[in-house]
């Protein structure tokens, strides 16, 4: 019996469901029941009937699922898969910012811990940040932890004043505009699709800016037969599956790899399913406060 067959059989016996992010390894995306961006996965985790969820992604994703569905058992396939950006936002610093700007809405990116979400007014993902922020009555926005997403949103909402936290993604922030320029030189007919976690100078060169899910939709609907993609390379699997006749180019000056996303493999998926290991637990009071922040996202994003 292959490891994939064992996972499928166990999943059926236990009535479990597997959720995976687009940055996961191809073999993980293949065995997953649902694959998507952070917003899609957050919605699906709430909607599925199954009470046992194996999350193939990073910690904040599984934790967000547990915050909204405390009665479900959420297993993180790789216990050590964190998101360095999520850990950059510090509680004391957020409290100080709140004190300094009492009239501001405190908005957190879903790439944040439950403790941080518990302190914020509303959560967003890159798929819904713009529409949610435009709907907030406050003019002043404290945005954390991603400085690049914050600067992109500020550019799109000129009527708002943004106070940005200095966090960043260790994968997207390393992409320099020269990398994009050299790809554009090699492929002059290819439009550029970039994730908003990239630097402002990189986003200035993009034809399209959006979440991983939005990048996929753009690549599929664009008449272009080749597209330059500025995000983590795991998305290539779904891009090529959906668009077998198109070519996709990624920066080659550095590996576009999130090591944390790659900590999940078939072996640890099988192991967490067998042992029901790595179950996410959150302190009750923090969970309840953080739930308000995530519930508001789902309410405003609709
Ligand atoms: P998406 O919500 O666009 O999938 O992004 C998640 C993420 O961690 C990007 O680095
Ligand atoms: Fe975090 Fe960046 Fe990895 Fe996304 S790609 S999980 S933001 S480190």
Automatic annotation (TrEMBL):
Query: Kind of enzyme, top EC level?
Result: transferase
Which keywords annotate this record? 4Fe-4S, Iron, Iron-sulfur, Metal-binding, Pyridine nucleotide biosynthesis, Transferase
User: Which GO-annotated molecular functions does the record name?
Assistant: 4 iron, 4 sulfur cluster binding; metal ion binding; quinolinate synthetase A activity
GO BP term (any one): 'de novo' NAD+ biosynthetic process from L-aspartate
Hydrolase as a keyword?
no
Q: Which GO terms describe its cellular component?
A: cytosol
Q: Keyword Cell membrane, does the record have it? A: no
Which cofactor does this sequence's record say it needs?
[4Fe-4S] cluster
Origin: domain of life? Bacteria
Recorded E.C. number(s)? Answer: 2.5.1.72
Q: In which pathway does it act?
A: Cofactor biosynthesis; NAD(+) biosynthesis; quinolinate from iminoaspartate: step 1/1
Put simply, this protein is called Quinolinate synthase
